[in-house]
Known about the structure:
Elements lengths: L2 E3 L9 H7 L8 E3 L18 H12 L5 H11 L12 E5 L2 E5 L9 H5 L2 H11 L5 E7 L3 H10 L5 E8 L5 H8 L6 E6 L3 H12 L2 H9 L2 E4 L6 H20 L9 E6 L4 H12 L3 E8 L4 H8 L1 E3 L20 H8 L4 H14 L1 E3 L2 H10 E5 L2 H15 L5 H17 L5 E5 L7 H9 L9 H12 L5 H4 L11 E2 L4 H9 L2
Parallel strand pairs: 4-14, 5-6, 5-8, 6-7, 7-15, 9-10, 9-14, 10-13
Antiparallel strand pairs: 1-2, 3-4, 11-12
Amino acid sequence: MRYISTRGQYRPVTAAEALLTGLAPDGGLYLPEEFPEGAALNPFTAPGLTYQQLAGRILALFLSDFSRAELEECIHQAYGGNFATPAITPVTMVDAKLGFLELWHGPTCAFKDLALQLLPHLLTAAARKKRLDREIVLLVATSGDTGKAALEGFKDVPGTKVIVFYPEDGVSAVQKRQMTTQEGNNTFVVGVTGNFDQAQAGVKALFTNEAFQREMAAAGKTFSSANSINWGRLVPQLVYYFKAWFALCQNHSLAPGETFNVVVPTGNFGNILAAYYGKKLGLRLHKLICASNRNNVLTEFIQTGVYNRNRQFYQTLSPSMDILVSSNLERLLYDLTEADPAQIRAYMGQLQRTGCYRLTAAQQERLQEEFWAGFADEGETTAAIKDVYARYHYLLDPHTAVGYKVYRDYLEATGDDRPAIIASTASPFKFNRGVAEAVLGAEAAEEADEFALMKKLSAATGVAMPAVLAGLPDQPVRHRQVVAPAAMEETVRRILGL
Length: 498
Ligand SMILES: *Cc1c(COP(=O)(O)O)cnc(C)c1O
């Protein structure tokens, strides 16, 4: 299967090339030239598939230039003892029609592990296939979740190095500790005395510095970004939606032919797009419910057909969804415009120039046929955590709580109470301040030390902390370097010996 650019101004490429380059040279995102057929992925005809077997079948449909043995090797390395449960992504039903798809049992306790545990292995296999004998250097600026997930994914993968810059005072104490204690002989974690935008600008400057790229090539190295627009991050995310379907059928919440709804707390539109592609592949989904926090640009887009990034940016309790430009949306535009790259170029041009574009009525109708949208503000997020704990004795992290609030709104607005799955994107203990405030009250949450607060939350609720988080205070700090934003290039040079 070949991959084409959403902007239509580049030749089709192989899956290996799409993965290695991430973004197409015309600025577009890669898509399969023809969408595959997934009828064989059915819990009623093929029950009992393990997560790994399901992953093997789905990856084989999309990454056809990889052999089955190559894919199986990658999957074997990605999904094993590094997850806290053999189910990898278990579904917890809180009542007969509502389940939480827990995507946080991986090494960093957030859903990005599902893609980033696999991607490094796919990238190195793709590089071998292209006979690129260059070291892959992953360069990341992070506001928290992505950096740690990339570090864990690339840790000790031969032929790779990973360098992560984080804003020294811009991540939570847990996130910082997760990164500064990172193990692995090829991992480099550096604090930046600036905010996230400065760290990101520093990384972008290196990516676009052609002289630097030439120096890298001469030294046998090449940069990779592995960010969420990479096709290799999207495909692994289809697997858990199928796994959820299989689970609903196994516990008899769903009969053959019946459909279910899925609710996804959304930022860059990657996770929910994977659910949409799952539906194209045969997943029996009815509505895709897009949940945003106060940065509700996607809610407005789905409700009105207008994408408008000209608005106030809010820092919220669900920081991984604090996004105003959802880059993966461009892939959905391809379907909404019925495969019209000229129209996509026009929309993306308008977005860049004016910060805004508007779908046609027909496109908006197509969008609303598949998607429903809502959002939660800070008070509503806290109330949702409290409500779910009171009702079901189940702890939600603030991102997942946004999803739950929007699910309740959907029920009320439509009366559509068919079975639903809410994607639970992080462990509550990863964002324990917001959770403790909701469940234990503001006073109890005044505890200054985040690790002490985590223990308090666990003791008060009887919910166990993930072992990887509970053990953090005892892990030795291995990365202490902090640099000014202006010194980032120099730092990368030193790390790479250039
Ligand atoms: C990244 C992230 C999201 C948003 O996912 P997208 O694919 O960007 O829409 C939601 N919740 C958590 C915890 C995340 O880390």
